[in-house]
Amino acid sequence: MAATQTPAAERRQVHPTLAVLERQLHLYRRLWQASVFSSFVMPVLFLLSFGIGVGGYVGELGGVDYLAWIVPGVLASVAFQMSVGESTYGVLGDFKWIRGYQAMQATPVRVRDMVGGWLAYMLLRVLIASVVFLGVAALFGALHSPWALATPLVCGLLGLAVCAPTTAFAATIDHDSYFALLFRFVVVPSTLFAGVFFPVEQLPDVVRPLAYLSPLWHGVELCRAATLGTAPGWPALAHLGYLVLWALLGSAWAVAAFGRRLRK
Amino acid sequence: MPTPLSASPAAEPLIRARGLVKRFGDFTAVDGIDVEVAPGEAFGFLGPNGAGKSSTMRMIGCVSSPTAGELSILGMDPVRDGARIRARLGVCPQQDNLDVDLTVRENLTTYARYFGLSRREARRRADELLEFVQLADRADSKVEPLSGGMKRRLTIARAMVNEPDLVLLDEPTTGLDPQARHLLWERLFRLKQRGATLVLTTHYMDEAEQLCDRLVVMDGGRIAAEGSPRSLIETYSSPEVVEARFGDAEPAEYAEKLAGIGDRVEALPDRVLVYAADGDAAVAAIHARGLAPSTTLVRRSSLEDVFLHLTGRTLVD
């Protein structure tokens, strides 16, 4: 209690961003079995239904069987939905009900540590889910190129690109009914029309640019190029750059939104 | 390391505010207050809801910036050195924000990590603090089923995890039953004895009297009076108070009939207060005027009376 002790920052054993990540992992430990199980079961069901069921009618697409064609799309869309889904109630709840961010605010943890710790946690979650999915897809013989090993990284980047702005959005709103709008007008259309189940070239010219706007399409293109060993629709760097841009702008928005909310 | 309770007046104050102002739009929550808190002191902000106590606490806790005026915490500027100051503060917020899905112990260890403590040190302090707040037997229980008093004690333990130089307690016992409050006061008193500097807000006069060496009475964002509980009572009230209730008419009518008895007569909605040096003599004087209150109670003056005198209103409504 002496007023002359060493400032805590000088004997810090863990960075505050990491401490925030640790808290999330502590919370996750209570439900990780259920979560990993569902990230295993969901892709199996998806692949059985779409790949083998629908694929039986569709036959080949782009020179490969339909299963091999949609595997990378479903992989990317799992990362996409997970990143949006977890960052809605997960973030709003920590402001509104648990008040975990208000608790952190009273400590040396800064707003950028809160956002950074949360994004790092979501990145880990997406990476784990992608690796599990990739394993299942390999069992179905749906991977045609060793580049498939790079898809978890693509999914991680896609995850950050959508997690960051969703986190910012969740920190901005006061009522969870906005999430229904987010799902209805952003998540569901993205999943349906961003090249997951059929090529965006099928879309009328007027709406196709909307698919290009969605980060999901860029993730799908990169994943598909990787698992099939083909070239993506645009240069790979353009796809990656677009996702990085979303991640950076989203993070900046999230830091601003957290700061605004906590100053209230 | 205990700091002597009789901190010398020359000691650098831990908190120094000069003309501190906080505005939210057109609303002025804190309207130019001067405050100094010395090391080892237990200092209180007493006032009703909306007096500006919590806004002041949030500025001291470096989570809200002053609109105007000077503020220095631990000799640093809260706007520039916020994170460094917060590293040395312990904060017990008005509204619980424990991690309800973590265990009691995990709440302390994860919080300790925010301050950069090693895992081992976090664990050691958690166990020690759980002993201190008498929750050691609940260490592995979840937070959700704990009683309100237990949650408050856990929050106070959490505020101590970084061995703070300054502990901020915002309405620490609001909403607790009397038994839980007394247990909490007893723990806070121990903390004070160990040399911690406590700053608390409260709208309970008994809490302020129990815990504070010195306090300010706040009303409408301003400081109405400052001093020790005793000196405030001596300055702004009489030693004793008679609370008289009359069954048959409005207290205000009786207040007129009682004028002249004691130092001062105050009518509340349900009773009349007569401030006097000698309460029993005042009761006798009431009866001598031929008035027959249904009940009379003679008690010592409290901070409630100080507040009533200063503002014309009661603290808790």
Automatic annotation (TrEMBL), chain A:
BP-aspect Gene Ontology terms: response to antibiotic
Stretches assigned to the ABC transmembrane type-2 domain: 34-261
Keyword field: Antibiotic resistance, Cell membrane, Membrane, Transmembrane, Transmembrane helix, Transport
Single GO MF descriptor: ABC-type transporter activity
Membrane topology category: Multi-pass membrane protein
Subcellular location: Cell membrane; Membrane
Entry GO CC: ATP-binding cassette (ABC) transporter complex
Residue spans crossing the bilayer: 31-54, 66-92, 118-143, 149-171, 178-200, 240-259
Entry's family note: Belongs to the ABC-2 integral membrane protein family.
Protein's name according to its UniProt entry: Transport permease protein
Organism whose genome encodes this protein: Allonocardiopsis opalescens
TrEMBL record, chain B:
Keyword Membrane set for record: yes
One Gene Ontology biological process: response to antibiotic
Origin superkingdom: Bacteria
SUPFAM superfamilies named in the record: P-loop containing nucleoside triphosphate hydrolases (SSF52540)
Matches recorded under PROSITE patterns: ABC_TRANSPORTER_1, ABC_TRANSPORTER_2
Record localization: Cell membrane
Keywords of this entry: Antibiotic resistance, ATP-binding, Cell membrane, Membrane, Nucleotide-binding, Translocase, Transport
Name of this chain's protein: Lipooligosaccharide transport system ATP-binding protein
Organism name: Allonocardiopsis opalescens
